[in-house]
Design brief:
single chain, 134 residues, mainly beta, eight-stranded antiparallel beta barrel, 3 helices, 39% strand
Length: 134
Amino acid sequence: MQEAMELKFIEIDTNPLKPKATVHASGRLGFNAEAIAFMELSNKKNFRVAVAGETGETLKNIYLIEQDNASGAAKVAKTGDYYYLNVGNLFEDLEVDYKNYSIIYDIKKQLYDDKDMYVLKMRKPKQKKNQEDE
């Protein structure tokens, strides 16, 4: 007779939050509903934007830290239920080809100098369909 095995069951979150941001053709960095809630964008006015390093893999991450005044910061804008940052010049400066590729960032939160910082980690860019046909 086989001995009874003791099993430990693990609770699995089948609906995890997937906050993400997408760079639109206009250069706007738009946030999905999960990101809007996760980042509490309705309570935010401006974000300082930072990168780590000079080139390569490190530039695939963008860091956002809330800032009270607008000097040197990106203003949180809203159209309807849609929140975005109008930072197209940032992506041009970083040489992110958002016009030919779909650029999507996953968002995580961590602390930096005792303040919430949002880390936007770039997914692998995918060529836009209209560019593949040319």
